[in-house]
Each structure stands twice: as structure tokens, then as C-alpha cells.
Amino acid sequence: MAWLVDHVFAVREAATNNLKKLTQKFGKIWAQNTIIPKVLAMSSNPNYLHRMTTLFCVNVLHDVCGKDITTKIMLPTVLRMGSDAVANVRFNVAKTLQKIGPTLDYKQVDLSRPPLHTEVKPVLDRLSRDQDIDVKYFAQEALVVLCLN
Q: How far is CA 137 from its chain centroid?
């Protein structure tokens, strides 16, 4: 976990890939209880690079963790990060939503929650009107790819 906050990107990237391998080995319940809470906690770190690492981890972990963990545990953090003060974080939120979109259940998670497109689409719509041109671009691309436009 300490490698996730290293100042060298290649070290953070290797650590992220190691988390995926560990999750494949020990299972998604282990990941849900052991590493995902620590990864999501980094989303509030004052250092924007640590917040970006949260998004990179979600990008890598969503496919091994599956729909339920991605939708119920990781997605709320990604959506919240769409309001980050740093443009690089915001455009990576759009890229992450595009990447994890196929894993999410857009029809209905459970009977007590509204359809997910009512959560994802508003964030991408807001980001598509962002003042930063890169944030706009990646949000608009995600809306098209996810058929939410």
C-alpha cells in the first residue's frame, strides 16, 4: 500500500497492478475488506497525485471486483471526485466512468435505488460543461461511449 503514494509514477502504477494480481489471487471479498477501503480513503488526500491513484486503482480493480463492489462501493467515491478542484482529477473521473461503465448496472442495482444513469449522467453532464477543455473533452467522450448523451 505504501507504494501507492510513492512520488514516482512507475512505482504507483506497479503497485496498482499488484493490487489487481492480489485481488485475483485472494478474491474480491478480500479486496473489499482489505484494500478497497484504503484505496478509497486516498480520494480525500490533499495531494492530488494520491487522489489520481484512487482513480487508477478503480480502473484496474473494477473488472476483477465485479458489478456489485464497483457499483455499491467504488462508484460513489468516483462520482464525488467529479467535484475535485484539480482539473486532472476531474478529467480522470470522466475517463474512469467511461472505463467502468460496462461493469455498472444501468438498469437497477436494487429496488431501493434509482437507476444508475441518474447518478452517472449528471456528473458527466456537469463535467462536459467544465471550464477546462480537457475535462469537457473526456466527459463528452464518456457520454457518447456510454450512450448517455
A: 18
Residues 87-115 pLDDT 10s: 999 999 999 999 998 888 655 545 444 44
CA distance 14 to 43: 19
pLDDT digits (tens, 9 = 90+) for 28-78: 999 999 999 999 999 999 999 999 999 999 999 999 999 999 999 999 999
The enclosing domain of 20 has a CATH number of: 1.25.10.10
- Separation of alpha carbons 74 and 147, rounded Å: 21
The boundaries of the domain holding residue 68 are 2-146
Q: Are 93 and 52 in contact (CB under 8 A)?
A: no
Q: Are 56 and 81 in contact (CB under 8 A)?
A: no
Domain count, the chain: 1
Give DSSP secondary structure letters for 108-141.
Answer: -S-TTS--THHHHHHHHHHHTT-SSHHHHHHHHH
